[in-house]
Amino acid sequence: MTTDAIPNGKARDLRQWLAHLEASGRLAVIREGVPLEHRLAAIAKRLDGSQAAWFPKPGGHAIPVVSGFVSRRAWIAEAMGVEQAGLLAAFRHAADHPLPWREVEAGSAPCQQVVHNDIDLHALLPIPTHSEHDNGPYITAGLVIARNPVTGVQNVSINRIQVHGKDRMAILMLPRHLLAFYKAAEAQDQPLDVAVVIGADPLTLLASQAITPIDYDELEIAGALHGAPLPVARCLTSEVRVPAHAEIVIEGKLLPKVREPEGPFGEFPKYYSAQENREVIVVEAVTHRSNPIYHTIVPAEMEHLLLGSIPREATMLAHLQRSFPGVLDVHLSVGGVGRYHLFVKFRKQREGEPKNVILGAFGAHYDIKQVIVVDEDVDVHDPQQVEWAVATRFQADRDLVVIAGAQGSVLDPSTTVGHGDEVPPPHLQGIGAKMGLDATRPVAYRGHVFTKVRIPGELEVDLEQEVVRGAAIDWQQALVRT
């Protein structure tokens, strides 16, 4: 890797982005031969948020593994070519102005330089086993791409995939677009063609997590993020289109009316999902670049949380601002696993407005479990400031909103309390309570009782100008010696 800059300010290719991280000291090269079971994930987790980890010959495999290359919010903004403060606006603009992809000739794309038809996934790919009680190796950074069997429009998502056979994989599909496509195909007793793309560039990864209506191809959002149509190639065994510059593509079919055990698996809430019978992908071909790179996401760490939270934040901000112009910013907190706890910065004009904002946020996405609304003098990206607002501006008997028996995240283990050792049936999974906190000050108050303490000029102090470097104090004379 030799490139030390990102042309046009955007990361268009995984290798280009990794080279940029290496040149700026943000890529750690790990010793050769790190075991794929637990050790690789343990090392990547220790480096989480400080450096991406590059593993040569992991477990004796020729294919290297990389992890953690978008594990900081600032890095994602950098890959997009924007300031961190403009991250949500830039993502929202791309989601609202998608660019149709550009197809290259099938077989000519970099991701199809090498083709395997005799499939043994364990031999072909360095697939790690991450957490202590995971039921074997999992693909955690695979973009699952499928076409709506009715309209032909694609969907892109990231799903956990357990590799439990040479050419068989079990997949978790939550009640979203991919599952809707599968059910439509299964109703006709037909398999659903899918591609699992491993080693996509940062912006295509981010686009895959956009919250969109059905029949809205996230690869077009990726093109908008890149500022040019995304090059795609048709799979060799189906009509699915995949990013042409990806590292690895697994082509297969989701089988109708077939279920096999999947799990336990350590998920983003930092708990294990139970073993259940899941849908099955049978693999028909694997294609990849010459000398490919395998990407793995360590579950529940920053790369996992940020890829999910930033697109959700952009969607939540746009949704809330349509009804509440006083909403200035939102943040899905890391402590709320980037999904469940939403902080909202709001310019309040009338009493009661924050409660309406809370209700609007609950309606925007069923994963949201807790909403805290704060004033414009609170930084929602600083949990300490949000906690201060709750400590000094919130009273539970006046400012608390609780909604019982609402649909929430099926991966939230607290929703299963009361079911004993039984896994609740699908129609009862994820049922729980939602809580909103109005941590805003009153619109009218006397004097400075709710004025945030500040010192004039504190933000303008330049310590490089004020602090004398290399000085020492003569303690006998109480004088400074330079």
TrEMBL record:
Keywords, ordered alphabetically: Lyase
Q: Where in the numbering of this chain does the 3-octaprenyl-4-hydroxybenzoate carboxy-lyase-like Rift-related domain appear? A: 103-300
| Enzyme Commission number(s) of this protein | 4.1.1.-
Against Pfam families, the record matches this protein to: UbiD, UbiD_C, UbiD_N
Question: What range(s) does the 3-octaprenyl-4-hydroxybenzoate carboxy-lyase-like N-terminal domain occupy?
Answer: 18-89
Mind telling me which PANTHER family this protein's record contains? 3-OCTAPRENYL-4-HYDROXYBENZOATE CARBOXY-LYASE-RELATED, FERULIC ACID DECARBOXYLASE 1
Q: What name goes with this protein?
A: UbiD family decarboxylase
Q: Which organism is it from?
A: Massilia haematophila
